[in-house]
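COURSE: Structural Biology Practicum
ASSIGNMENT: Worksheet 4, Part C
STUDENT ID: 0417
INSTRUCTIONS: Below are two proteins. For each, the amino acid sequence is given first, followed by its structure token string. Answer the questions at the end about the second protein only.

PROTEIN I
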Amino acid sequence: MENGSYTTLTRQSGLMREMRVIANNIANSATTGFRQEGVIFSEFVSDLDNAPSISMALGNVRNTSLEQGALTQTGARFDFAIEGDGFFLVETPQGERLTRAGSFSPNAEGELVTPAGNRVLDGGGAPIFIPPDISDLSVAADGTLSTDGRPLGQLGLMAPAEGTELLREDGVMFRADGATEPAPRARIMQGFLESSNVNSIGQVARMIEVQRAYELGQSFAEKENERIGNAIKTFFK
């Protein structure tokens, strides 16, 4: 296979990855707390013996947008949204995870949990207990929960430490590949949920661009294959 074919195949592979990411973004444009993803293309240059080096573009890095999503008022007392940087801290079977999806509720034991049943944690990693007989619930900007002036606990409002990579595990759940730290500049709003930060129009426009680029690469690959085939036929006549 010639260098041009290798270059085209790596480019097509990266475009296919980006197309899948874009499709996932569009599918989650209405998912609470969803963070838009993108694909970063990097250049890979390989030295070849007794021949010019070959440069290939690899779409192998996925980037998460941390841009603030729109805040939608729900009025529900266990719905919380984060304004600014930071994530809620939750406990999953795989360990502590971060999320911006703040639709919570008490379980049968009175622990505050996510819709999937994962316990919501405070800054120290302890679960938050909501007494079943409370008549009202208020939340301060720093995440402190209280009823009738009596504090119940504080929602863990965390952010990855500098230099820590944020890894997506599903649509709204992230793992910090390193340490986390409090996010003091963020504030929590009760009775609101943060919408997905996906720019639907921009994503549809990008999907069209990627599709056209992929079709162009496919056309080049077909013509290159035809050229090589004709050359072989001519050579062996």
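PROTEIN II
(use this one for the questions)
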Amino acid sequence: MMNMVTHTSVDLDRARTVLAALREGWLEALGDAPSASWAPLHAAMASAEHANGWFAPSEVRHAAETWCTALEDEAIESWLEGLTVPEGEAQPVTVGLVLAGNIPFVGVHDLLCAVVSCHRVRVKPSRDDARLTEALIQGWAAACPGIGEQIEIVERLDGFDAVIATGSRNSGRYFQHYFSKVPHIIRGQRTSVAVLDGSETHEQMQALSQDIFRYFGLGCRNVTQVFVPRDFDLDRLFAAFVEWTHLGDHHRYHNNYTYHKALWLMEAVDLLENGFVLLKEDPQWVSPVGALHYQRYDDLADVEAKLDAGADEIQCRVGTGGLPFGRAQHPGLTDYADGVNTMAFLLGLGR
């Protein structure tokens, strides 16, 4: 068995510096008077909705604020202390990143992991998130010497030794084929679930609404399936969702809502709705934008069996047996997508 030591391939001082600089950049971009280095990110965040109608100012701000929290000094130190890599020297390789664009800054964790692991990075942003990603990298490079030489933004990914690619279920199959000859992490579509036991307070239900509606439900950490006890009153959910009524005024969200409402009514599907979300009893893990699937249960053991069977479809779980309500959209540095340790993968390259 390979002997393991800690931090042999990670420059800890540099990692602390570049991650702290990234946090400072977001803080500046969230303010009114960013420095010259971070002014482009400030501008990109302010105009993101013009390039992508799903990137409402409130959602872009939430994403940036979440990263500011994830990159606090104590969180960075805890993450770095937990890194373990194979013994011996490693040679930097070129890592290609194919980023998703479903929510603002969704590819940042892969990006910072690649930077901290000291590899060369070639980034292909999603066109849905390209402007934010490019502005972030531009600011980071201006604030930290060496970042600009380490990261290259490309329109077409080539010249790579390893790949981390994120996309839909269909693109995931394509990625598996296209990148099969190099070390890779391929991510397809996942979603998240909530499990209620009926004892939840109104405040906890309001927190659950954050897990459901943040980013218009487009993220893999958004809850799209809720398990409730057989006698659970679904009006409790509607009462807790009131603060999200404004979603009905968002044209893209509203179009999805009205389309599925009309479709399901024509199919005589039983629905409950409140003007901006459709509650549909359905075992499918993923619900469309503007809808929320639910399942009733008699025995929690039955829920656990379903969750075990669908483990490859689920990103995270909130409520009974999972994260606290309201925490799904606040991932930290140790929350690796799909449960695959990105840093372990990267630190094992070049050996």
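ANSWER KEY EXCERPT:
Q1: The first helix runs from residue 12 to 30.
Q2: Residues 1-8 have pLDDT under 50 and may be disordered.
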